[in-house]
# Entry
Amino acid sequence: MGLFGGKTPEPKAADPSTRPAPAAAAPVAPAPAPRPQPCVLGAQTTFKGELIAEEDVLVEGTVEGLVKSSRSLRVGATGRVKAALHASSIVISGEVTGDCTASERVELQATARLFGNIRAPRIVIAEGALFKGQSDMSAPAGA
# Structure
């Protein structure tokens, strides 16, 4: 029953030809891929041999041999490395005995101790870091 006792009108069926076209959805940019976690060698880990990685590497333990990463390589404050290091960038906070070769940069932080040569186009040595070796800022071989 309608208002004031009248009949309630029947709703009209919508004419499909008069419906507005649905709005086009705005393109949604894909979310950036999360940066993968680095390969971590913990403080209680000892590794001897060749470590070759296609990801970031963080060394907090002891490594002897050779370490290569196509990405970044970081030797943490508790890291002790007796190895040749090769990576796109190398950051040292611990102790390294061996040569460091990077395609981008090598950084020695204040707590770093490096006994070996550096070859990288950019070298950063913080005040307090110990470095005994030679540095070469020419482009790495094969670049």
Observations:
- Residues 36-134 form one domain.
- The CA atoms of residues 17 and 23 lie 16 Å apart.
